[in-house]
Amino acid sequence: MRLIKSLLVLVCTFVFVSAKAQNLCVTKLKEAQTSYDQGRINEVPELLRGCLEDGFEKNDRIAAYKLLTLTHLYLNENDKAKETMRRFLQLNPEYEINTAIDPPEFINLYNSFRTKPIFLFGVKAGINRVAINETAYYTVDNINTNERNYSPAVGFQAGISFDIPLRGNFLLNPELYYRSKQYTYHDDDKV
To answer: What is the number of structural domains in the chain?
Structure first.
């Protein structure tokens, strides 16, 4: 019982400390945004430094990398701006430019990255089971003396697919599949 209480206290302490650290990082992000807006741009990297790797939730980390990219662009630190833009796009690969908000320098840097995939690759696999429905039976034997029995068995299928983006919203989608269907047939002649 004492061990359970100790573990519970330890978990609660960890959760409390994590939440407090996260709140501290959110506050630092707000301070960094305020510093950027007020023109104290040199303060931004130092304010965000300790929280970028593990202090932010995903959305806050995305906002921090965008702010850091804008800061590096303003300070003409192009290599650092490229690195923070790369991390920004890794976290938010579907980001779309907003020409009303994003400055031209940010748009130019964004356009220097390839954000659309060249191709997509997929693998598909599954199992199947055949259901036999006999519609006609042809034999040289007397049809009434034969008892036929089909038993389904488990088969499988596997394949690969490629998506190649074309202009607009069109895709070229070649696929290659292999399918194995199995069943057993038993024929008893009553004669």
So the answer is: 2
